[in-house]
Amino acid sequence: MAPQHDAAFPNFADFTHSLASARYEDFVRRSAAGTTSAEDFSAMTQYLRNLYAGIEVTRSFADDNGQVFDCVPIGSQPALRGNSPLPPEAPDPPVAAGRRGAGQSLPVRPQLRSDRLDGFGHPMSCPPGTIAMRRITLEEMARRGSVRNFHRKYPRGTGRRHRPGAADEPFKQYATGDQKVANLGGHSYINVWDPPVTGDDFSLSQQWYSAGSPMQTVECGYQVYPGKYGTTQPVLFIYWTADDYEHTGCYNLECTAFVQTNGAWLLGGVLPASVPGGAQVDVEVVWYLAGGNWWLYLGGTAVGYYPGSLFGTGRMATGAQEIEFGGEVETDDETSWPPMGSGAFAAGGWQYAAYHRDVQYIATDNTAQYAKLTAYQPAPACYTSLVNSGPTPWYEYLFFGGPGGSSCS
Fold first, then answer.
1. Rounded to whole angstroms, how far apart are CA atoms 79 and 60?
2. Backbone phi and psi for residue 209, each to the nearest 5 degrees, phi listed first
3. Which of 111, 127, 296, 383 is the right S-S partner for 175, CB 3.0 to 4.6 Å?
């Protein structure tokens, strides 16, 4: 792609000026306000002004999908602004990582590298001591109607997890493997795919660590969510909640929660996808509760952490009670459910079905243990899961996914 003229790039100063001068009447006139009321529009505008207040941007660039990212000093990101000291050193997690094995999958590399340029000729990397924040616009927030809906994992549902024996939660389905076990985190390689998803549906693969009532979680994986990210490519994401998704939680760096310490990874940035019958790519993900913080590692490198204080006196402040790995889909009408994973059922296996492999959890004595997952597939006509174990590089693993369809509820 030939570099575009830099004058076309939406620079940060113009962006913040647009927030300062935003008027609801202008959004209504441009049909950009969606279902947002004047009161909610005012709240969203103030939210973004506060989120970006005092931030010093050292560099900006656009990813391959045209999403804009701003490089900001680690200490001025929303979760740290006005606080000191700077983040602690990341601990070494007690998991045996990096056992990829010959002739298997390709590792997902960090998205930011000094040898990459965006379509405007800007380096797609952040200077030392800074991290990249995906720029959130008023137009994006307005599509969700309110600040809380914007932060929800999925605005049409409550966001609550579907559990065996629990009442059905509309709009969502799963195909996973889980285990109820006291833990301080865990590990898997997540196979990345790009299932065809449209509109406000999403399809994801992730790790969940959860505990308590109301449920608290930390989560990481990839999702295809065009209604949020404006792309049908898979996007790296994290999420959390302290109260069963009711009033707390947000994606990535979109609220004052996650503290990012590594500038090479883009939370909210696109990832490469696997090819049916061909090259498989996966990203190594680890969560580890240490020093009071839930640390995230991607590709063996610490990316940042959720402070344990987010969970107050809740169970996740000291550890999780359940691990879960696999897929989740959401739909906006329950009549046309999107594909999950590769779109193939779990029985398709290697190079055809999506997987998590080398699934481990970190026991409360800080030792790594292989998981013993139980498959969960409440809609087997649409999505299935298959748990097994094998030699390197698989160990405990899970195949999952399916084509979706019209009768998945």
1. 20
2. -125, 125
3. 383
- CA-to-CA distance for 282 and 393, rounded, in angstroms? 12
Q: In this predicted model, what pLDDT tens digit does every residue of 128-156 receive, in sequence order?
A: 999 999 999 998 898 888 999 999 998 76
Name the DSSP class of 119: T
The two three-digit tokens of residue 214, written as one number: 């109301």
Q: What is the DSSP string of 259-275?
A: EE--TT--TT-B-----
Taken in order 55, 59, 61, 63, the sign of the CA dihedral is negative
Q: What is the third-level CATH fold of 80-87+100-116+172-401?
A: Jelly Rolls (2.60.120)
Dihedral sign of CA atoms 172, 176, 181, 187 in order: negative
> SS3 for 204?
strand
Tokens found for residue 113: 């590298």
Identity of the amino acid at 175: A
32 token code pair: 């950009």
Angle subtended at Cα 60 by Cα 56 and Cα 65, rounded to the nearest 5 degrees: 140
Closest CA to 314 of 179, 250, 208, 218: 218
| Contact indicator for 242, 251 with CB cutoff of 8 Å | no
Rounded Cα distance between 134 and 160, Å, is 26
Radius of gyration of the chain (CA): 20
Helix axes 12-20, 38-52, angle to 10 degrees: 140
Of all helices (H) and strands (E), which one includes residue 228? helix 226-229
DSSP class of residue 47?
H
pTM (predicted TM-score): 0.94
Tell whether omega for the bond before 85 is within 30 degrees of 0, i.e. cis. Answer: yes
- What ranges make up the beta strands (E) of 18-147? 59-62, 68-73, 106-107, 130-134
Q: Tens of pLDDT along 23-76?
A: 988 888 887 767 788 999 999 999 999 999 988 899 999 988 889 999 999 999
N residues, the chain: 409
Do 220 and 172 meet the contact criterion of CB atoms below 8 Å apart? no
Task: For residue 226, give both structure tokens.
Answer: 């065009």
